[in-house]
Design the sequence.
């Protein structure tokens, strides 16, 4: 439960000016950028400023800064209460802020501003979001059998490789499985990307396409001597879209052919086929594959590291309910309270997308736990999600992975789990920016744990940083098979 009662609005808190400084124009942004990437690192960048200003709300600059970003100034909101302003659509605008203080060229997406960059006030946002929600509802019956089919290939690959080497990279198999699932979900369960011009490299094309767009927000992890060279190369000018034009064209053509039935339905919704296809490719690559590429290793990182005690509890719950219910169904998954809690805890402790941005539509007042602050119309608000979801005023031992955290009365804290661009207790709609596949992500994470603990009793893992800077790198160093499987 919460370590103290968080102030969740309503109370009259003292109005304070927002601390912090942007420094000299241009030079202040460069200095903060070097702190963020090189001198301090991401988490210390934020924690040191919280300490310095004795406030979880403060002014700072966020990367990429000059010359890619025309204005890098933000107001950071880093606690569970102030963070909520980012979901208040009548008060904040999310036009072109998906990647923060800059927007990649629309040349990456066929010349269109895709749905993720649209604000809720734009009519086409509601149209696209409605279509996404309609499509997901229409595929509801496919979720479990299709994902289980993809997982069977993943675990077969893991077992074979582990038998040969005595250890195995989870990411290698998870990445391919994630792409295959997304492609088959969008194009039909019997479709196979290997039978298209993508062959077996579809997920690699998406990774290159993502990397070029997001390069200004990343680091190559080079030795310190190369830091300033890297900074100059990645953040002086954006990498041009022509670098991945041929790769993107292959992805577009593959989806335009294989997802013809989905695009037919989009046209019935009133969407232009070409624009719908570019949106579909973006959703498949950026939102879905990019999210799963990060989320599944994060889940296995924390569960794998939690130890044999939690593994036994999960295995006991999963096997008993699957046996009693006669299989893996929506009903049986809903009865697995510990499994659900473990998934929520993974989403809380390491949200897949750590950043949220929005601009104030009007002059407004926000609250933290202990003060109120004025934000002017047009100012950029930035939330660093891992600090908000590890707020010590809300969660006991927030830095610890506690598998049982959301069991029983603990589920009252789910309203402070923000991983999906909204509260876990809220639902995506055409009128908000919450992830349309929010419930699908939770479902798939549960199914992955169920399938894992039907096969294995326990495991050990080595965890590193993903080479793509998305999520974690997870290597199984032991896999103890279930004697009953």
Sequence:
């Amino acid at each position: 439960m919460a370590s103290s009662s968080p102030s969740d609005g309503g109370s009259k808190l003292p109005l304070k000016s927002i601390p912090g400084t942007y420094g000299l124009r241009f030079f202040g942004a460069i200095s903060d950028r070097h702190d963020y990437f090189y001198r301090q690192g991401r988490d210390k960048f934020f924690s040191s400023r919280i300490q310095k200003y004795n406030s979880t709300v403060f002014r700072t600059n966020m990367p990429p800064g000059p010359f890619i970003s025309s204005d890098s100034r933000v107001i950071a909101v880093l606690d569970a209460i102030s963070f909520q302003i980012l979901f208040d659509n009548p008060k904040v605008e999310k036009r072109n802020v998906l990647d923060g203080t800059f927007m990649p060229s629309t040349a990456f997406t066929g010349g269109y501003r895709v749905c993720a960059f649209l604000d809720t006030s734009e009519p086409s946002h509601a149209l696209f979001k409605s279509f996404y929600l309609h499509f997901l509802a229409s595929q509801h019956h496919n979720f479990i059998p299709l994902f289980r089919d993809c997982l069977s290939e993943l675990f077969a690959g893991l077992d074979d490789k582990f038998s040969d080497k005595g250890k195995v990279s989870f990411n290698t198999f998870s990445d391919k499985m994630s792409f295959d699932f997304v492609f088959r979900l969008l194009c039909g369960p019997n479709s196979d990307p290997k039978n298209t011009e993508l062959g077996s490299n579809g997920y690699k094309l998406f990774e290159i396409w993502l990397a070029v767009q997001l390069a200004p927000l990343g680091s190559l992890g080079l030795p310190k001597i190369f830091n300033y060279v890297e900074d100059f190369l990645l953040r002086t000018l954006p990498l041009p879209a022509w670098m991945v034009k041929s790769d993107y064209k292959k992805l577009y053509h593959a989806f335009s052919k294989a997802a013809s039935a989905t695009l037919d339905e989009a046209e019935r919704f009133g969407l232009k086929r070409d624009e719908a296809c570019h949106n579909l490719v973006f959703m498949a690559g950026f939102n879905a594959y990019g999210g799963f590429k990060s989320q599944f290793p994060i889940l296995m990182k924390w569960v794998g590291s939690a130890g044999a005690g939690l593994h036994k509890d999960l295995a006991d719950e999963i096997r008993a309910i699957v046996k009693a219910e006669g299989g893996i169904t929506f009903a049986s998954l809903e009865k697995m309270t510990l499994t659900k809690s473990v998934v929520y805890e993974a989403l809380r402790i390491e949200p897949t997308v750590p950043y949220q941005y929005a601009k104030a539509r009007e002059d407004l007042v926000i609250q933290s736990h202990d003060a109120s602050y004025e934000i002017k119309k047009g100012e950029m608000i930035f939330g660093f999600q891992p600090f908000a979801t590890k707020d010590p005023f809300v969660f006991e031992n927030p830095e610890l992975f506690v598998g049982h955290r959301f069991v029983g009365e603990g589920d009252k804290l789910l309203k402070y789990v923000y991983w999906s661009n909204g509260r876990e207790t809220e639902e995506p709609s055409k009128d908000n920016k919450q992830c349309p596949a929010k419930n699908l992500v939770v479902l798939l994470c549960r199914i992955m744990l169920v399938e894992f603990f039907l096969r294995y009793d326990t495991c050990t893992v080595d965890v590193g940083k993903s080479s793509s800077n998305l999520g974690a790198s997870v290597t199984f160093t032991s896999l103890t098979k279930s004697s009953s499987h």
